Task: structure prediction
Amino acid sequence: MDKPPRPARRTWQHWGVTAATHSTLFPQVPETADAVLDGLDPEQREVALALTGPVCVLAGAGTGKTRAITHRIAYGVRSGRLQPASVLAVTFTNRAAGEMRGRLRQLGAGGVQARTFHSAALRQLQFFWPKAVGGDLPRLLERKIQLVADAAARCRVRLDRNELRDVTGEIEWAKVTQTVPADYPAIVAKAHRDAPRDPAEISQIYAMYEQLKRDRSVIDFEDVLLLTVGILQDRHDIADQIRSQYQHFVVDEYQDVSPLQQRLLDLWLGDRDNLCVVGDASQTIYSFTGATPDHLLNFRTRHPGATVVKLVRDYRSTPQVVHLANGLLSQARGRAAEHRLELISQRDPGPGPVYTEYADEPTEAEGTARRVRDLIAAGVPAGEIAVLYRINAQSEVYEQALADAGVPYQLRGAERFFERQEVREAGIALRGAARAGGNDSLLDDAEDLPAQVRAVLSTKGWTSQPPAGSGAVRDRWESLAALVRLAEDFARARSGATLSDLVAELDERAAAQHAPTVQGVTLASLHSAKGLEWDAVFLVGLTEGMMPITYAKTDEQVEEERRLLYVGVTRARLHLTLSWALSRSPGGRASRRPSRFLKGLRPGSGSLGTIASGGSGSFERGAAAGRRRPRGPVLCRVCGATLTEAGAMKLMRCEDCPSDMDEALYERLRDWRADQARELGQPAYCVFTDKTLMAIAERVPATGGELSSISGVGARKLDRFGADVLAICAGGDGGAGPDDS
Ligand code: ATP
Ligand code: MG
Result:
């Protein structure tokens, strides 16, 4: 295939300058409508000029779909052919909607509505509810799982946590596919769907759940769309009013539209066809919620007169990254794969993807953090680096490793720990128990602090053994388990500490996390990275079981996992690192295998014809180079047992083994750390984590060598803070400020 000509005009994005840099350097908006078109290649320009009638853009990652539609709207507005208030641009995440509004403003088309389906529907629902139904819109339920549990109990069906999560997912699926409870069993049978329980039982629970919502005057997330659809269907006067306001519709990431969202879009449109959709079937990653790329792929059948544009020039990534992305897709199967377009990079060559195999997870996280730090040292801004993983629960070990490396980070898609709902609820429960003191019957026979915390948190869903499976229930349990561990550490660190002391400690930590941080490295799940881009991307944890995830069983589910990896790969502009670990913990059995999706792509994994040729990419074995951690098992220095938990390895003793910590020293170190963090404008964990401080207070190092043998004290931190810490350990107050060392 001939490479299309490079566009004559290269714009600032071509060179990978970030939008943020651009907006500060060149804040002025294009002077004319025609100037808006200057930044587009011929096909993108075709999209921008097709301002009426149905338009469909089918194109791969990084080809400028989002750019084409924002320029299209801006061109239409600037040329006077579109009224800003008559355009509704819809995307799938709040972040994407926000970004689109920002880009439109930069192009001189502020005032255009760019929203998610949900926020657009919610706004219309709030506005028209009094007229259509009367009174105020019922409260929006944030999580449905408790209500589903209540519904199941009313139906006398016992569900374990895992089943509860699955049944909740099933109700969500039924709602977005507009399946009412009575029809659910028949639809499941017709679709050959693998229901998690007897469909008749699920149908009953689903009906009861709907009943309970009505009784309690709440609506859920899906109801926002369902009710808007219902009102638009039944009330022609209201539908007309909305249609007279919005004349033009633009949908980004259209491959992930659900039947319910499509229904809403149809109702917004009425019998008009001013609809422009853009998408990439190879990036369909929300099928599990009922989304389907069929609407995108069948667009021309539905709208025979549609302008269909294909884009193949990839402006985002280097030929090396694009080669891997194409290789991944060449192994894909299914309908989406039949429509794949080979991407052609427009960028100059860059480094090949790096594949790294690590012995265990903590080493993988440390190795990744070290590379991140090296990139920052080499001039890549922290905000231009991302670490992407399959599930949010993987974030913790990376949070810890980046904190140890002194690299600020931000979590995307998942809230920070202390902002998570279960953590806030747990905090409230602990505060209540602390206030009640010994009078709380829960605490009667639990005298030590960790036991008290376990007792309180067990009312919030904590159990001594984790729930089976993953998902929301597991995430919640993990958060509560982290609080229990924190309480145990705290009690060991401060003997005699009370529940009130712990609550004060939690407040302090929450405040530290909220401290304004400098722009940091992004930690995000692959799902939440959709549509985004960074100069450097680390795809971590690429083992069988994680990628594809264990619960992807059918061929279609496995294909969706492959597309998810494709989404990950195509987020990188320049640097791409793919890594996996052979065992979970140090010294553990190397039983894991790298992801099947990398077969034939990573060096040394067997050739799949032409895919592996091209020779891009290098393979490395990621030893914990430069670290003092011994290879092989780490032993507890108190009892000699093999340590497997990251926290225990940091302390170099079992968390249960007695601590010989100098408590006064620990307090002095904490005070010093708080001062440092304030002066540096960084969260305390970026100076040293609690575990590292504890290890210092236990070992009381007298020399730089001793200090640097403690996990979490790397060369950089030794250089920066070593003198202070040694002075404090020697009995001083470590008076030197951060700039003096
Ligand atoms: P995804 O499928 O990941 O959503 P996309 O197709 O929406 O990707 P964009 O995000 O619009 O792609 O563009 C990718 C990058 O390429 C952006 O940095 C964008 O500014 C740049 N780009 C797109 N088109 C051009 C062009 N004609 N000239 C220069 N840069 C471009
Ligand atoms: Mg996009």
Q: What stands out?
A: The two ends are 59 Å apart (CA to CA).
